[in-house]
Amino acid sequence: MESSDEAAVEKCRIHLRPGTLRDAPPATLHLLPCEVLVSRPAPVGRFFTPAIRQGPDGLEVSFRGRKLRGEEVVVPPGLVGYVMEEKGEGLVGKGFSEGSSNDNEQEQLELVEPPEALERDFDRFIGATASFSGFTLWGLETIPGPDAKVRGALTWPSLAAAIHAQVPED
Amino acid sequence: RDGMDGGDRARARQHVFLLPEYFKDASKKMKSGLMFVKLVNPCSGEGTIYLFNMCLQQLFEIKVFKEKHHSWFINQSVQSGGLLHFATPIDPLFLLLHYLRKADKEGKFQPLDQVVVDDMFPNCILLLKLPELEKLLQHVTEEKNPEIDKKKYYKYSKEKTIKWLEKKVNQIVAALKTNNVNVSARVQATAFFSGDQASSDKEEDYICYAHGLVSDYIPRELSDDLCKYLKLPEPSASLPNPPSKKVKLSDEPVEAKEDYTKFNRKDWKTEKLDLLTGYFLVAAQRQRRDK
């Protein structure tokens, strides 16, 4: 039997706040070829960024004593990158709480009575905290080649468009 | 607060998303109306997170790219996992088809609001709000329009559905060619020739590949019927696979390591999507406890 908790989550809607898409400040993203197990603040600007060098074939840096090679990857045309966080979990830094201006307050007000809150009690909110139009893709020792899986993934939107476009009628 | 006291709490989880650019413009006009909801996955029948844009009246599917041993640096923070989420438009007809086929067991014409009913995924009523539903449904149903009320009555038509799927396949084949996607087993080899690998692929490889892609959105049974209709080689022994493993189909002609189909299947699977679902579930519970 399903617990009532789970039943509630089935109904749950997680609202993405449109205003945050408009206001999201640009962010710098690096995709590393290793697993860092904990998600937390890190002094990237102190240790990582200043160590990046332009090498003969791409960018070079080292992380935990290993040499990384990388290059800029651009978000596919027609798409924008966003970093999203759920509200109300003790956001560090630029969360929603510190957001600018009245716009934010207006939205807060509005959230109290969303127009379509069918399951208001269980509705949750998520929003963009940052945006990006590209990121740096890093590989261990070598630049991830043209057959890197991430690059394959980035071709997905154009293929998805073909799968889901309406077919002509007879 | 740098964790020395052992009470260092990881910051709120950050999700890296790629969204359509036009969301930004649409967001000027809307105060709300973008939401993640759990709906039925038309292939597996399981729950999957979709993104619904009420303002644009469009449904988007969420695919998550995940590869072992990756992490993000996002500004001055680290986010483990290295997940990359894509929101791309999905043809709602695939989801409607799930309900139409289910209702077809009763064998009669029914109004749509009696067809799209789901205790497990009550958000399915959102599907009824999508524009031009009547036009969409023509592709896969017979309809009746009795005088008594203004409602239209629908009944699933397998023949029409197969023809609709065939058009989908043709449409995908064209896109595969335009995008120069390698569809054959010669992926590794062609990587050495910068020439026209696309033209060396056989038409049947394209159709197989496209059939595999569309099979991610329809149940196994329908996928098999489509396979026969397209006269493709029989898929490898059709075991009564659990739904989530059914996608063996188009793996058959392609054994190359870097094949896109395999990538597509292995790395995009539903269980990966559940990571997001699982997170949302945990977050929702935590939130309520905190109240």
Structure description:
The complex is a heterodimer of chains A (170) and B (291). Chain A is α/β, with parallel strands linked by helices. Chain A is built from six helices and nine strands, in the order αβαββαββββαββαα. In chain A, the strands form two sheets. Chain A has a five-stranded mixed β-sheet with strand order 2-9-6-5-4, with no helix packed on it. In chain A, strands 1-8-7 form a three-stranded mixed β-sheet. Chain B is built from eleven helices and ten strands. Chain B has helices at 22-29, 93-104, 112-115, 133-137, 158-178, 187-190, 197-200, 203-214, 220-229, 260-267, 270-290, and strands spanning 14-20, 34-40, 47-53, 58-65, 71-74, 77-80, 84-89, 110-111, 141-144, 153-156. The longest helix of chain B has 21 residues, at 158-178. Chain B is globular. At the A-B interface, α1, β1, α2, β2 and β3 of A face β1, α1, β2, β4 and β5 of B. β7 (79-86) of chain A pairs antiparallel with β1 (14-20) of chain B, so a sheet runs across the interface.
Low-confidence stretches of chain A: 1-9, 89-121
The share of residues in extended strands of chain B comes to 15-25%
| Coarse structural class of chain B | alpha+beta
Helix content of chain A: 25-40%
User: Please, what is the oligomeric state?
Assistant: heterodimer
Can you count the beta strands of chain A? 9
Strand content of chain A: 25-35%
Element pattern of chain B in H and E: EHEEEEEEHEHHEEHHHHHHH
Q: What summary fits the major beta sheet of chain B? A: 5 strands, mixed
Shape of chain B: globular
> Averaged pLDDT of chain A, please?
78
Overall pLDDT metric of chain B: 75
Distance between the termini of chain B: 25 Å
Largest sheet data of chain A: 5 strands, mixed
Strand order of the largest sheet of chain A: 2-9-6-5-4
